[in-house]
Design brief:
about 60 residues, mainly alpha, about 50% helix, elongated
């Protein structure tokens, strides 16, 4: 194995290690918030359908 091949292999291993660490951080952050939503008895969305006080107005096209 030449020094270039060894450097390429070590760089690939370094990249894999960085990706694994990033994935572990991502999974740790995602598992931290699991099961906590809606503990206050409220839904996730507020007024998801828009304001109910406004009635849509339809007009015919003239001309």
């Amino acid at each position: 194995m030449s020094s270039e091949e060894q450097n390429a292999t070590s760089a690939a291993e370094e990249t894999k290690r960085k990706f694994r660490e990033a994935l572990e951080r991502k999974q740790k952050a995602a598992s931290r918030g699991k099961g906590e939503s809606h503990l206050d008895g409220q839904g996730a969305a507020n007024r998801s359908q828009g304001p109910a006080s406004h009635q849509r107005e339809f007009r015919r096209k003239s001309g």
